Amino acid sequence: MFDSHVHAAPDVLDRIGDDSQVARAYELADFSGFVLKAHYESTVGRAHGVAELTRRTVYGGIALNQHTGGVNPSAVAAALAAGGRVVWMPTADAHTQQAAGLPRLCDQEPRLGAHAYAIPPVDPQLADTMDLVLALIADHDAVLATGHLSGSECRWLSERATAFGITRLLFTHPSYTVPGLNPATVRALVEAGGYAEITAYQLLHQPDCTPALLARVAEAAGEHLILSSDAGQPDSPSPPEALVMLVDVLTAEGLDRGWLTAAASSTPTALFAPG
Ligand SMILES: [Zn+2]
């Protein structure tokens, strides 16, 4: 299996283990690799270092939050030139996160001020900046992940990504609290292209999330489904266990285990692998 979304220490929040400990857990579970995500730091260098240690495929990227100045083409260019495979649109500092009252770095360090970020159509002024970011992602054939942006911004990204020739589009946990999209909306998004993610974190920590709801989202995504752990929290199972649990829980909902396993192995492997 291949986990396309995990968090490790060092981070601004407590994590279950550092990069090498998390990598070791995947090694013991016989995973082929993982994607290291952080909300406040490029993981490109960390992913490279731990890949050397563990002999797994490990990819990193950058999330466009307050530490990069939000949607910042310079940060994107640097991360991709250094080998980053994914650019996450604003996550912890997306306007949706602020509106939902979910945790942010600026809660810990009030001197920073609280900045929140949106893209078109919510913030039309960002159109030119976003076009440069999308051109960079296309140049590097990297993955565009929608972060915690809203449904209307996901639709805008989908259309612009197509215009820029981006073929690797991932709707980041669309049924999570943010952006909180329903199965019909998820289906409409993936019908236009891209993959929809469901995470074990949702099952473990999302208020009112049930296996039945996630099963409806999985069905809506169909062959465009990606399962990941989004684990790394100290109170979650180890990341490989969390992802295996997600497959098991969805299988128990009557979904096909082979399809679910592909969504946690060959599908994300192909999405992230350099062309
Ligand atoms: Zn995450």
Polypeptide structure, described:
This protein has 275 residues and is of the alpha/beta class. It has a single domain, classed as TIM Barrel. The protein is 44% helix and 12% strand. The chain has helices at residues 19-28, 44-54, 73-81, 95-100, 105-108, 127-139, 151-163, 183-191, 200-205, 211-221, 239-252, 257-263, 266-272, and strands spanning 2-6, 33-36, 57-59, 61-63, 86-88, 143-145, 169-171, 195-199, 225-228. The strands form 2 sheets. It has a 6-stranded parallel β-sheet with strand order 4-5-6-7-8-9, with helices on both faces. α8 runs parallel beside α10. The chain is globular, with a radius of gyration of 17 Å. The model has no long low-confidence stretch (mean pLDDT 97). Residues 5, 7, 37, 230 line the site of zinc ion.
Break the fold down into its secondary structure elements and pairings:
Elements: E1 2-6, H1 19-28, E2 33-36, H2 44-54, E3 57-59, E4 61-63, H3 73-81, E5 86-88, H4 95-100, H5 105-108, H6 127-139, E6 143-145, H7 151-163, E7 169-171, H8 183-191, E8 195-199, H9 200-205, H10 211-221, E9 225-228, H11 239-252, H12 257-263, H13 266-272
Bound molecules: zinc ion.
Zinc ion is lined by residues 5, 7, 37, 230.
